[in-house]
Amino acid sequence: MKQEIKYFDGQHCETTATGTLLRQLGIDLSEPMLFGLGEGLSFIFWNMKTMDFPFMGGRIKTDLLTQNIARALKLELKVKETSSVKKAWSEVKELLDADRVVGLKLDCYHLSYFKRAFHFAGHYAAIYDYDEQQAYLIDTRQQGGRVQTSLESLALARAEKGPMSSRNLYYTLEHSGEALDLPTAIIEAIRNNAKAYLNPPIRNIAYKGIEQAAKGIVTWFTTSSNIAEEFTAAANMMEKAGTGGALFRNLYRDFLQESYALLQLEALEQAYHSFVEIAAFWTTVADLFVKIGATKDRVYLDEAVVLLRQIARKEKQVMEKLSQL
User: Fold this and answer.
1) Is the pLDDT of residue 177 over 80?
2) Mean per-residue pLDDT of the chain
3) How far is 63 from 52, CA to CA, in rounded Å?
4) Using the 8-state DSSP alphabet, how is residue 164 labeled?
5) What is the pTM for the complete model shown?
6) Which has more pLDDT, 162 or 42?
7) What are phi and psi of 127, to 5 degrees?
């Protein structure tokens, strides 16, 4: 088994998987930098009748982050899908036999190293080796970093159907021969992210989605049959489910700080300080959700509503300034 894997120690699954692939190419960037270059910041308030409770996400759609990172870093990204489980493994196995590290999209429900079984088909990990029974993966810090799961469980995780799933998706990254200009890539990524954030295609995304959430959590509170479990679970997803804390706002805050240190642009320094405040607000919202779950007291709900409206306004203002870089 290969022991010299240069693995990425990250909190978010896609940046961890892609960061591991990048390290094999000699590219070593921080997780906040990868998230920022990936134009990752967004928001979605998603509520369907089939869901137990509304979902609040803080990043762009799955699969897009790595596409944006590859474009920013002038790399060649190859993504493949197949409905054939046999073909899906043989192709990945061939790459591994050639000492390539491969990114996988998975449903973490089937992965044996997860402490709690739940369906989420938008999870990513990097595979770097295998033997007759086990696959050896790089996953997030909280999942254990260097982990392993059976080949059978890996096949099930890759082939699972449902929301955010793909057909046994895997991807690789290669140098394209084009020269990287990191300062230019940073500016373009910030500008692109800001413009996308300010022009959401539907009203439950970005700052408009946060405004929707401020209304939606009231309905959720008044109709929920399990306030304690649902609001606590939502708080954990905001702070602990691979977001880096504050629903990805900590990562974007740190990206802006790192970008300012490199580029010395006043607009970036101002945006960084704004996101220091915004990130703290998101953590407070999560804390209020925990209190709602513990007490079922409407006062904490009202505080969360006010805070979400403030966050929507503040994020819109910051992104308006960043879109002009």
Assistant:
1) yes
2) 95
3) 25
4) T
5) 0.95
6) 42
7) -105, 130
